[in-house]
Design goal:
Elements (H helix, E strand, L loop, with lengths): L1 H9 L11 E5 L2 E5 L7 E6 L6 H18 L3 E7 L3 H14 L14 E3 L4 H5 L14 E6 L5 E7 L7 H17 L13 E2 L6 H9 L5 E4 L2 E4 L3 H6 L1
Parallel strand pairs: 3-4, 4-5
Antiparallel strand pairs: 1-2, 3-6, 6-7, 8-10, 9-10
C-alpha cells in the first residue's frame, strides 16, 4: 500500500500527453483547466509555499514580466498547496511591503491556485517525496493552445527559476511550430535554425550543394537563417 501511495504522489504526465484536467479555486476566481485556455499557451508552475523568500522573488519576477508572456499569447498560472486566504495575504504583502531588485508595488494578476488537498499537484507530479512530501517542487509545464504538454522543467526547492530561459523555451517552441524547424543549443531569437534532416540521398546531396542560404555541416546537420523580425512577427 505504501509503495502504491508513493507512486500515486510521484506520478507525472509526460511531454506529448494531454494536460490533466481540473477545476480549482484561484486568487482570480474559479478556473476550468485547460479547457478555458484553449487557443493560448499556458505556463503552469508550482511553488513550495507562500511567505518564503525564493518563491517571493519568483512571483515578483513573474508578475513584472507577465506582459512579455502575454504578448506571446501565453497565460501564467501558479499553484501551491497553501490555502486561498494565505495566497491573498502573501500577494498583498508582496505588493505593500516587499522591494527587491528595484521591483516594488508589484501586483500579481495571474491566477494562483489553492491546492490544499494536493489534488492538482498529484495529477502533475509536483509532489516528490524524496524532496518533500508536504511541499510542491518548482515544476514548470508548457501547455500549447491545443492543451498538450510540450515541455517540462523541474527545479529543487532551493533554486529559483531562470525566467529568461522560460521565455526562450516558449519562443523556441512557437518558432518550431510556425516554421517547421528545430533550434540548436543556446539558440536565441534571430540565430540560425536547424532544418529537418534530409529524408533521402537526393535531398541530402542537394542540400550539401545548395547555395540558397542553407549551411550544411554534414548531410544530417543543416541550418538556415531566420531573422529576428520573422520570429517576432509570428
Amino acid at each position: 500500500m505504501e509503495t502504491t501511495q508513493q507512486q500515486e504522489v510521484s506520478a507525472m504526465p509526460r511531454i506529448g500527453d494531454k494536460a490533466p484536467e481540473f477545476k480549482a479555486i484561484t486568487t482570480q476566481g474559479e478556473i476550468n483547466f485547460p479547457e478555458e485556455y484553449k487557443g493560448k499557451w499556458v505556463i503552469l508552475f508550482s511553488h513550495p509555499a507562500d511567505f518564503t523568500p525564493v518563491c517571493t522573488s519568483e512571483f515578483m519576477t513573474f508578475a513584472k514580466r507577465e506582459p512579455e508572456f502575454t504578448a506571446l499569447n501565453c497565460q501564467l498560472v501558479g499553484l501551491s498547496i497553501d490555502g486561498l486566504y494565505s495566497h491573498i495575504a502573501w500577494l498583498r504583502t508582496i505588493k505593500e511591503k516587499i522591494e527587491y531588485k528595484g521591483m516594488k508595488n508589484i501586483e500579481v494578476n495571474f491566477p494562483l491556485i489553492e491546492d490544499i488537498t494536493m489534488e492538482v499537484a498529484k495529477k502533475y507530479g509536483m509532489i516528490q517525496p524524496g524532496e518533500s512530501s508536504t511541499k510542491a517542487v518548482r515544476a514548470v509545464f508548457f501547455i500549447d493552445p491545443k492543451g498538450m504538454i510540450r515541455a517540462i522543467i523541474y527545479y529543487p526547492l532551493s533554486m529559483g527559476r531562470n525566467f529568461d530561459e522560460l521565455k526562450r523555451a516558449l519562443i523556441a517552441m512557437q518558432t518550431a511550430d510556425t516554421y517547421n524547424i528545430a533550434t540548436p543549443a543556446d539558440w536565441q531569437p534571430g540565430d540560425d535554425v536547424i532544418v529537418p534532416t534530409a529524408g533521402s540521398c537526393g535531398v541530402a546531396k542537394e542540400r550539401m550543394e545548395s547555395t540558397d542560404g542553407i549551411k550544411c555541416y554534414d548531410w544530417f546537420f543543416c541550418t538556415k537563417p531566420l531573422p529576428l523580425e520573422k520570429v517576432k512577427t509570428k
